[in-house]
Q: What sequence folds into this?
C-alpha cells in the first residue's frame, strides 16, 4: 500500500456547538507535534476550547514549538521516547497481544 503524500484532518460540522465545548486531545505518537497542533487549530476554528492535549509516546523535538504556538493548551506525555528501554519501537511496530490462541487451522495456514 502506498503512503499518502498529505494527511487530512477533519471534524464533523456542528459537533462543537453552543455552549462552547471543552475538548481534550489524545495522540498516540508525537514526534513533531504538527498533527496535534493542527488538531488544536481545527477545534479552535470551530469555536471549541482545547483544555489539554496528551500523547502516549512523545519525542521532545517539536514540543517547544507546540507549547509556544498553543500556550493555553496543557500538554501531557505518558512516556518519553528517550526513556523507553527499546528505542527501536516506532508507531508501526507496535502490535497488540493476541487475546485468543490460534486454532490448529490458523497455525497450518501460516
A:
Amino acid at each position: 500500500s502506498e503512503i499518502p503524500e498529505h494527511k487530512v484532518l477533519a471534524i464533523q460540522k456542528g459537533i462543537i456547538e453552543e455552549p462552547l465545548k471543552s475538548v481534550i486531545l489524545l495522540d498516540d505518537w508525537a514526534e513533531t507535534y504538527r498533527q496535534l497542533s493542527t488538531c488544536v487549530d481545527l477545534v479552535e476554528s470551530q469555536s471549541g476550547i482545547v483544555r489539554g492535549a496528551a500523547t502516549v509516546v512523545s519525542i521532545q523535538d517539536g514540543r517547544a514549538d507546540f507549547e509556544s504556538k498553543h500556550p493555553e493548551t496543557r500538554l501531557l506525555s505518558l512516556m518519553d521516547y528517550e526513556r523507553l528501554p527499546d528505542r527501536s519501537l516506532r508507531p508501526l511496530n507496535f502490535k497488540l497481544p493476541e487475546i485468543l490462541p490460534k486454532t490448529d487451522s490458523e497455525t497450518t495456514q501460516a
